[in-house]
Each structure stands twice: as C-alpha cells, then as structure tokens.
Amino acid sequence: MQARMLQQHAYIAGVGMTAFARHAGRGLKSLGAEALRLALADAGLEPQSVQAAYLANAAAPLVTGQSAVGGQVLLRELGIGGIAVVNVENADAGGATAFHQACAMVSAGYYDVVLACAYEKLHQADAARADAALGNALDVERADELQQLLRQKLRDAGLPSSGSCRLDLLGVWAWRHMHAHGTTREQLAQVVVKNAQHAMANPYAALRERVHADALLAAPLLTGPLGAGMCAPLVDGAAAAVVVSPRKLRELGLRRAVRVRASVLASGWETQDEDDIHAAEQVAQRAYTKAEIGPQDLHCIELHDPSAACEILYYEHLGLCAPGEGGELLDSGATRLGGRLPVNPSGGLLRRGHAGAASGMAQIAELVWQLRGEAGARQVQKARLALAHSGGGVVGREVAAIVINILESA
C-alpha cells in the first residue's frame, strides 16, 4: 500500500487481555491467541480485516526456545497470514513499543487496521530461566562489571545483594532515592499497600489479596532496602490492542474508541553528570508537548513499577511532583483511587504482576477500560486523559527503552 503520510490520529478500537498468573499447562500461542481474539471481538472485527501486526516478546528464546518468527507462528492460530508481521524485542518495553509502531503506521496512513500484541511465558520447569531472560536486557559484555559494582554499592550501604543483576539494580535505585531525598521504607511499603488495594478489584491481577505495611516491613530484605513484597512477581500473560484509522473508525461506527494523543519511543542516554535530567523526564516532556497537555491535565496513570521505589521515582520523572517529593505525593493520597491522580489503578506490576513485554500492553488495555468507563470497582471517575509509561532494560545508569503513550476518550 502506498503511504499517504497523513499524520492522522490513531484510535484504539478494541483491547483484550488474559489473566496475569502462572499459567501451568499453557504455552505462548495459547496466551497470545486469547488476547488477540478478545481484542478483535472487542473491536467487532474479523481476523481477515487485519492489514499488519506488531507482536512483542522478551523471554521466549531463553525460556521456551521460540525465537525469530514467534509472531507469525501465533497469528497462524487465528488464521492470519499474508500480511506484514513484525516481531518486536525491546525488553520490558516491548509491548509498549509494538503499540507505538502500530500507531505510527496508522498515523502515517500506511494501514487502516493494525494489531499490537505482547505475550510472555515466564514459568517453565526451570524457574531461573525467566530471571535470566529478563536480566540479560543489559550490556552482557559488561554484566560482570555491573554486578560487581552493584554489590559493592550495596555492601558499602550495609545492605544485602540478591545475586541477581536485575533485582540489584532496583535495590541500588531504591537506596539512592532514599539517601538523596529521605524517602522511607514505610513509604515503599505504602506503595505496595495502595497498589494491592487497587488490584483487589482487578480480575486480571495475579495478586488480589490485601497486604499490610507491617508485614512488608518485617519481611527479610531481598536487595538493598527492598523486601520481597516490594518487587514485582514474574508471571505469564498476554495483552493486545486493535489500532485503526479515522476512516476505519467511521466505517465501523464505533462510539467507544480511544484516541491516541501522543506516542513517544526513545532510548535512554546518560552523561558523566549524575545530576543531569533523566531520560524519562525528557521523553515525558516530548509526549506532553505532542499531546498539547501537561501532567496537571491527566486523570490517571499506569507506570512501570518493577519495585515500590520505582513508582515513587517515576512520579518525579513524569512531572507529577518536584524532584525528591515523590514520597510526599504518595503520603498525600493523591495517587490512590479517589485521589487527584490515581496511579496504577490496575495494581501495577507490583500486584497485577510483571509479564515482561506484556506488561506495557497491559497498561494500554487498563487505560482503555478506564477511559471507556468499564473498569468496574477500580474505575477512576470522569477519566478522559490517561498516560502509560513503560521502561525496559538498562545500559549504564539509564533505562534502555522508554515509551510514553497518552490516550484520550474520543
């Protein structure tokens, strides 16, 4: 199809998602196909309507052995072939990246109907493979050097190392924020308590029970100042979205579609100055500028919280508060359901569970339900503008991939 280069808005016509859990006896194709069928049914479209597809996965080559053509293999389960299929690998940000690419192709006028899907199977007989697969999202030639540096930093602070580079990064980031800004372990525990309360109303969440701050604080430290309950559990799952053009939206007569106001993808970067602006801050500003809004205009947010400390840190990076004031914003109640700007109404990675590349796509599904008023007991009242923030991998001191999507009820 010849490009029309219209720079039009892309719309989300439908979304679908599996439960995030340990799906014993189910494989990648089963999970991905479920999410895709649900998304197509939600949009009222048949598989034959799809013109292109972007499918994301992070861990399959190491965990299940499926590599290279996973997207084509999955789509055959739905009888879809003969279209453009792109397999996306971008660490934990893979799902958000697939969505970004789908939106870009629709906005440019290349296609009218594009699928975006992310799917992960992290639990097999060898549980260590999942951590290794996600933990390899760094410069592997310098992995030993990084691990030694992290262990030394934690040792100097009198804090434990988990032995996992992926987790120890989270521990060091948590310690740095606490050391620089006075954030407390009590505040870290309250992030988990908040997200647990949200997840209790989410049928897709892996962890739906209530938790108490005292229990979290009494648990043994896992890495740095983080206890086990302060890091996101790894789970299996899949989520998908159907992205359509304005022309297709009119043809379908959809009244529940969600407009994509901005979609920005960038790689992290760094300088020698640790006080420089973080990459996520600059990517967020680009997204706000493109959407012609500011953080004060948002009604709800789904952000990347592989640890409790990351949620507080990203409050600041997304401009929800000034640097160092993330703990105070949490204490104010603003980020709880019923507050001024609920964050992670799904329960976030901490309680919905972390399914690698699928986590970012799950954010999109959650926000579509929020903007359509279909989120049930976790509904954010009068939600019209929402932001999804996804990060993946690490190079040096910075997150390797950052995606920020701003969505609006149409």
Write a concise synopsis of the structure shown.
The protein is of the alpha/beta class.
Describe the SSE topology.
Blueprint: E1 10-17, H1 28-43, E2 52-56, H2 60-63, H3 70-76, E3 84-88, H4 94-107, E4 113-120, H5 128-135, H6 143-156, H7 165-181, H8 185-199, H9 213-218, E5 221-223, E6 226-227, E7 237-244, H10 246-252, E8 258-267, H11 279-291, E9 300-302, H12 308-317, H13 326-331, H14 348-352, H15 358-371, E10 385-395, E11 398-409
Parallel strand pairs: 2-3, 2-4, 9-10
Antiparallel strand pairs: 1-7, 1-8, 4-7, 5-6, 8-11, 10-11
Helix pairs in contact: 4-15, 6-7, 7-12, 8-12
Number of domains: 2
Number of helices, counting only DSSP H or I runs of 4 residues or more: 15
CATH superfamily of the largest domain: Thiolase/Chalcone synthase
- The CATH class designation of the largest domain is Alpha Beta
Number of strands: 11
Strand order of the largest sheet: 3-2-4-7-1-8-11-10-9
Structure class: alpha/beta
Strand content: 15-25%
CATH topological fold name of the largest domain: Peroxisomal Thiolase, Chain A, domain 1
Calculate Rg over CA atoms: 20 Å
Shape summary:
globular
Domain Thiolase C-terminal: 277-403
Protein name: Acetyl-CoA acetyltransferase
Keywords: Transferase
GO molecular function: acetyl-CoA C-acyltransferase activity
How would you characterize the overall build of this protein?
With 410 residues, this protein is α/β, with parallel strands linked by helices. The protein folds into 2 domains: 10-126 and 235-260, Thiolase/Chalcone synthase (Peroxisomal Thiolase, Chain A, domain 1, 3-Layer(aba) Sandwich), CATH 3.40.47; 138-233 and 261-409, Thiolase/Chalcone synthase (Peroxisomal Thiolase, Chain A, domain 1, 3-Layer(aba) Sandwich). The chain is built from 15 helices and 11 strands. It has helices at residues 28-43, 60-63, 70-76, 94-107, 128-135, 143-156, 165-181, 185-199, 213-218, 246-252, 279-291, 308-317, 326-331, 348-352, 358-371; strands at 10-17, 52-56, 84-88, 113-120, 221-223, 226-227, 237-244, 258-267, 300-302, 385-395, 398-409. Strands 3-2-4-7-1-8-11-10-9 form a 9-stranded mixed beta sheet, sandwiched between helices. Strands 5-6 form a two-stranded antiparallel ribbon. α4 (94-107) packs across α15 (358-371). It is globular, with a radius of gyration of 20 Å. The two termini are 27 Å apart. Residues 1-5 have low confidence and may be disordered.
